[in-house]
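User: Teach me something about this protein's shape.
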Amino acid sequence: MPASPPLRRVAVLVLDGAKPLDVGIPAQVFTTRASMPYEVRVCGAEPGLVAGGDGLSYAVAHGLDALAWADLVFVPGYRFPGREDPPRDVLEALVAAHDRGARLAAISTGAFALAATGLLDGRRATTHWHYTRALAEKHPRVQVDENVLFVDEGSVLTSAGAASGIDLCLHILRGDLGVAASNYAARRLVAAPYRSGGQAQYVPRSVPEPLGERFAATREWALHRLDASLTLEALARHAAVSARTFSRRFVEDTGYTPMQWIMRARIDLARELLERSERSVEQIAMDVGLGTGANLRLHFQRVLGTTPTEYRRTFARGE
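Assistant: First, the predicted structure itself:
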């Protein structure tokens, strides 16, 4: 029997005031199972009891040594992030982990801890919409983007509010294991496998959005017809609004134009077919509505920075 590949190592760093959802999301998403080759260690500045937010405390078995062990370190959000930075030894351990090659991923206000290390200087980052201004003021060298669910800067990643931690985790899974594994994890979590759009849609507004459910139905309708010709006019007709209104509201809802969103959906479907089937690139191009292999290769390179063949070589299931 061939040896199993080593498990990817994930540390979840619990800071004082840590928020329960922010801690629980990466710990649950990356739990060790046949479909999820990860080992998770929940840690703190030192082993023992850590006082969390919302009336909860955490008994952690590991200290900062877990950061020296991990390939991927999550920093969950915590209460009152603008008051003071985490302890110096915590910041130094995060920098050392990063310098060693580990990826650092912040959920919500965990971005303040990453910013305090200096690792976000000159980079894009996000946090919960309620704290974006505070993050920009406290760390002016960070390029704060308040309109996205997460930002991937390669070795450092940040996400918005707690639920966007799921989006970030699924994004990491797509990069590590492929879209099929990410979609499977999303089904297990009963979560959207790819929740496009920015967090601006969640900022409180004085006027309610009356078309949200109708547009969600149109998006679902389109996902079942990706092999067909989907025009702006056809989408607007299904939504029972004018093309101009549909286009404008769609961007507000998702952060993408309708055709950009359709293209991303087609590329994601192509990724899954490349992983799970032996169909040729030309056949897959027809299956996802892109017509020719050349067209699929063009858009695949533009969206993912690689070719369908290279993607299949990386993520296709072995014999």
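Now, about its shape. The radius of gyration is 21 Å. The beta strands are 8-13, 38-43, 48-51, 57-60, 72-75, 103-106, 124-125, 143-144, 150-152, 156-159. If you'd like, I can walk through any region in more detail.
User: That's plenty for now, thanks!
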